[in-house]
Specification:
Elements (H helix, E strand, L loop, with lengths): L2 H28 L3 H33 L5 H9 L5 H18 L6 H21 L10 H28 L8 H27 L4 H13 L2 H14 L12 H8 L3 H11 L4 H8 L3 H15 L4 H9 L3
Length: about 325
């Protein structure tokens, strides 16, 4: 990899990584949801591993091509340096699984969490223990890199299987059809992005351009899912302050100071009636309907009919 491509890769990757982190940060400030917080932590881990592991690998290989290093052991140790960042990736995989559980409103068991970290950290520590003794084995540097690559691919594949089972199979209990549709679309977006990522990674053997492309894509691939998630929440999110312990229509009217006429309009909105249909049924002008709806939005602190409907469901 030439110097210009190296610098471009580092700068663009960091820029994309900071953009994804910023989006996740502002989302977790705006939406008080567990899976949004988990997504933010996931982005932090992804960024840290990418910065240390991927960019570290690229820089290390660039240095090794220009500096003569004596001894196979020293070369193996240099190649091992990026692998030290693997615990960050293990934690990122776990957070990715956690997001899927929280998004479909399932509880992630403590037993699963414990075994997940025990097994992966044991594999990591075993590899780390064997590194000083690599010179005693008839294993080439290429074979070591291949085994590390396979380790990543297998664990990431298992992680994706768990995640997509949640999104496509275990999400059926969700009563909100809009959320169910969102979850499956969200999963498909992630699956396509992962497929592109794997393509770049496999092609990396052929050209440094693909290595550069994979690195930049690694840092940027969460931007699209985050923006899609942000768009969905902007339409459907209901602030926790709007939730009460006694879920009845009377408590909804009382909590938000909804008038009798506004309550009648709310009933029609739930039925999916248009402004004209509401106007015809209640014998009032369309402008009056719009004025009442505007007042309802202000009182309930929602922005549209979808959010209002989701809020009312909490009181039923």
């Amino acid at each position: 990899m030439d110097f210009f491509l190296l610098i471009s890769t580092v700068l663009i990757s960091v820029l994309f990584g900071c953009a994804a982190l910023s989006i996740a940060f502002f989302m977790q400030r705006k939406f008080e949801l567990n899976y949004i917080k988990s997504y933010f932590y996931h982005q932090i881990l992804i960024f840290l591993f990418g910065f240390y592991g991927l960019l570290g690998t690229i820089v290390t290989h660039y240095l090794l091509t220009d500096i003569e290093i004596k001894g196979e052991v020293l070369q193996n140790l240099f190649a091992f340096i990026p692998f030290i960042g693997v615990p960050l990736m293990i934690a990122a995989w776990y957070m990715f699984i956690k997001i899927s559980f929280e998004l479909i409103e399932r509880k992630l068991s403590i037993k699963f969490t414990i075994w997940f970290f025990i097994i992966l950290l044991l594999i990591f520590l075993t590899f780390g223990f064997l590194v000083p003794f690599i010179e005693y084995f008839t294993v080439s540097q290429k074979e070591i890199n291949t085994h590390v690559f396979l380790f990543f691919m297998i664990i990431e594949l298992l992680t994706l299987i768990v995640v997509f089972l949640n999104y496509f199979v275990f999400s059926r209990h969700l009563k909100d059809k809009y959320k169910l549709k969102f979850v499956k679309t969200f999963a498909i977006i992630n699956l396509l992005l992962y497929a592109i990522s794997v393509y770049f990674l496999i092609q990396g053997e052929k050209s440094s351009m693909f290595i550069s492309g994979y690195t930049m894509f690694y840092f940027s691939k969460d931007i699209i899912p985050l923006l899609y998630l942000n768009r969905y929440l902007n339409k459907n999110y209901v602030h926790p302050l709007n939730v009460v312990e006694v879920n009845t229509r009377e408590s909804f009217v009382e909590k938000f100071g909804i008038s009798k006429r506004e309550s009648e309009i709310v009933d029609e909105i739930i039925k999916g009636k248009s402004n004209k249909e509401i106007s015809d049924k209640l014998f009032i002008s369309i402008q009056t309907v719009k004025d009442h709806i505007h007042n309802i939005y202000i009182k309930t602190e929602v922005k549209n009919r979808v959010q209002l409907t989701n809020l009312i469901r909490l009181f039923e």
